[in-house]
Design goal:
Length: 119
Amino acid sequence: QVQLVESGGGLVQAGESLRLSCTSSGNIFSFWTMGWFRQAPGKQRELVATITSGGSTGYASSVQGRFAISRDTAKNTIYVQMNSLKPEDTAVYYCNAARGTPARRTDYWGQGTQVTVSS
């Protein structure tokens, strides 16, 4: 069973930065994609950023240019550097990893880490 453990959340002021980490119990190359999702109170979970096994990255338009996803394959860890944080970035952030294919994927999730941005 894959375990994803997140860390790095917290309370910051608008304009500040945070870096979230997600460490996998399995080799991250066993996942065709990994990424970060977030869920704010009363809203659906939404995609924030992704990184494929080949290293390609993708971002939600709302975080493009402010967030950067990266990985350390030796540590089986992915990161998201979040800069210029806004109050609307407040949410629980979840690490995601997927095996299989886009049409038939098996998803794994971390427990979530709270990010709160005050104005």
